[in-house]
Specification:
The protein is an alpha/beta fold. Helix content is about 25%, strand content about 25%. The strands form four sheets. A nine-stranded mixed beta sheet has the order 16-15-14-13-7-12-11-10-17, with helices on both faces. It has a six-stranded parallel beta sheet with strand order 3-2-1-4-5-6, sandwiched between helices. It has a two-stranded antiparallel ribbon with strand order 8-9.
Length: about 375
């Protein structure tokens, strides 16, 4: 192993920009050295911002790995390409940072897990929220009995997405693309962190921890997959987890995870690393927590073997939920008179579902799906 590990990045456009931004200071500090980047669009137009001109560039990861032997490969490509590219990287002898969702089905998950073990390599899944000390804080306080006996876990997100979001790529808004599962639904991609973070807070992250999944999907936008969905997840030796999310809110809100107890509740705003603890007779206590970047976490793991914050094995429960959504009922189409079209200044537009925020909170309150709460959008 080189004293300064080399890193390759697959995917420099789209979300790959965030990896370029995160790698820039680490390259400058000598934490990593570039092995190269791979992206089929690198030969079209100007180089992406943050990519030095002297970094070796390739049209695909196979070409890069034929010439380079990176210690680490970061993969920030479309969802349905993750498993194949991760397999190539693992077989080349690299550790992998794999953007979320790591895979789009249980078969891919089992295959990659077995391959990583056989190759003796590590896979860190890009659920950045799992690098937050806020999770440790919540789990510790809950274990100490601060909110009494836990009665339920939940997570929610109300976001806004315009038409251009769903037309940004051929795979956007798709369940499948040809024979490949894409899984670009509200809880499996844009708000996947809500699911993964809630499962981590509950301490139920393995495949075996998910006993059953009830899925209630809708679509407001003209897409194949779901954009407004509620899910009830039955967990092993634990209260249920209720999830509710939409991409058709009136205004974007901070997604959150809640732990309910007999004596209070704790709310984690995972994008902010903020925890609010509420106990009867006391004002809410708000705490802010640091976060470790998962790239740095992988480096520490390589140096001293400490456990990864977001290893592939811990994405098992999330993958079982994803698999249930993808292979569950097709999203029901929201009738046209139930939503409104909002024109945007740049010629874009978005669809807004009035009352969806209230429906999300009612699902959490009643610990049920939208349909179980009597919602009628179709």
């Amino acid at each position: 192993m080189n004293p300064v590990p080399t890193i390759a990045l697959a995917g420099v456009h789209g979300y790959g920009h965030s990896y370029l931004a995160r790698l820039r200071p680490r390259i400058a500090a000598g934490t990593f050295r570039w092995a190269g980047v791979a992206d089929p669009r690198l030969g079209v137009g100007a180089l992406p911002e943050g990519l030095p001109a002297d970094v070796p560039r390739y049209g695909d990861l196979a070409d890069l790995l034929a010439e380079q032997r990176p210690d680490v490969v970061a993969i920030a490509t479309p969802l349905h390409t993750h498993a194949d590219l991760a397999e190539r990287a693992l077989r080349s002898g690299a550790d992998v940072v794999l953007e979320k969702p790591a895979v789009t089905g249980l078969g891919e998950f089992a295959h990659l897990l077995d391959l990583a073990q056989a190759e003796g390599r590590s896979v860190q899944v890009g659920f950045q929220s799992l690098g937050s000390a806020a999770l440790d804080h919540v789990r510790t306080r809950v274990a100490e009995g601060r909110i009494g006996e836990v009665t339920g876990f939940s997570a929610a997100g109300c976001w806004v997405r315009a038409r251009s979001y769903f037309t940004r790529a051929p795979w956007a808004g798709r369940r499948r693309l040809g024979e490949r599962v894409v899984a670009d639904g509200v809880l499996t991609n844009p708000l996947a962190h809500a699911v993964a973070t809630a499962l981590a807070v509950a301490g139920r992250q393995s495949l075996e921890d998910v006993l059953a999944v009830e899925v209630d999907p809708f679509r407001v936008n003209d897409i194949e997959t779901d954009d407004t969905t509620s899910v009830v997840v039955s967990l092993r030796d634990s209260p249920d987890l209720v999830l509710a999310a939409t991409l058709a809110a009136a205004e974007p809100g901070e997604p959150f995870v809640v732990v309910e107890g007999t004596r209070g509740r704790m709310t984690l705003y995972y994008t902010l690393d903020v925890v609010v603890e509420e106990l009867p007779g006391r004002p809410p206590a708000t705490t802010q927590h640091p976060r470790v970047d998962l790239l740095d976490d992988l480096l520490r793991h390589r140096l001293d073997g400490r456990p990864l914050r977001s290893p592939l094995a811990s994405a098992g429960a999330f993958t079982r939920v994803l698999d249930a959504i993808v292979n569950g009922p097709r999203p029901r189409v929201v009738r046209p008179d139930a939503f409104r079209v909002v024109e945007l200044p740049d010629g874009d537009e978005r669809r807004e579902l009035p009352g969806v925020e209230e429906a999300v909170h009612e699902a959490l309150r009643r610990r049920s799906t939208f349909s179980g709460c009597g919602v009628d959008w179709t």
